[in-house]
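Check out a protein:
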Amino acid sequence: MSNLNKKIYTKIEAWRNRRIEGEHPYLYLDGIVMKRSWAGEVRNVLLLVASAVNAEGFREILGICEGAKEDKSGWSSFLRHLVDRGLKGVQLVVSDACRGLVESAADYLPEARYQRCMVHFYRNVFSHVPSTRVREVSHMLKAIHAQESRAAADEKARTVIADLRASRMAKAADLVEQAVHETLAYYAFPDIHWRKSRTNNPLERIMKEIRRRTRVVGAFPDGQSCLNLAAARLRHIAGNGVVDQMLHEHATALSAATL
C-alpha cells in the first residue's frame, strides 16, 4: 500500500507542477480552509486554488497549493508558482476580496485587471443591512450590474449610494461607495462574457465538490495529505473533461478588450 501511495502521490505532484500552455485571459482564484490534527489540536489548513478560461474558451483547473495564510505572502507564493509554470495572457483576475490578493496580482500579473466577485460583494453589503431590508437592497445592487455600460453602472451606483444614505443605511452606503468599482471591471470585456466573468461562481462550484469529497475525512493528519486528496479530486475533474465552453465564437475579442 505504501508503494502504491507513492506512485499515486508522484502522479498528483506531477499534475500539480505540469507546464501551463497557451494564454488564459480569465483567471479565477479562491481559498478553501480544511482541518488537520496537530499535537492533539485541530488546526486550519488553507488551500489556494486557481482555474482559468483559455483563449479557446474552455475552462481549465490550473493548480492548487497549500498556503500558510490567505494574505499577500500566501497569494504571492501561489501566483509565482503559476507564473513559473507558464501562466500568461491573464487580462482579468476574478476573486473575492481576499487580503493581499490585489497587491500580489499587481506584482505577478501587472497587465491584468481585478474583478471582485459580485455575489460576495452583495453578501458583504447585506451584513450592514437590516434583515427586513435585504431583499430591497439586493434589487438595488443588481440594478447596478444590469446596466448596459460602465458609465451607466457608475451613474446607477451613485443613485444607489444616495438611496442607501436616505434610508439610514450609512455603513452599507459607505461600502458601496468605497468598493463597488472593484465589481465593475468586467465591463471592459465583451458583453457576452459578462455573466461568467463578474462572479467567482465557476470556481465556487469546484470548491464545493472538494468540501463534499473531503467531509468524511474530518481532520487530516497533516497538510500534505489534505493537499494530496484535494489535488487528486481536481485532477479527476480535469481528467474527465469537466469543462465548459464559456467563450467560443468570441474568444478572439479578448485580446482587444480595453476600457
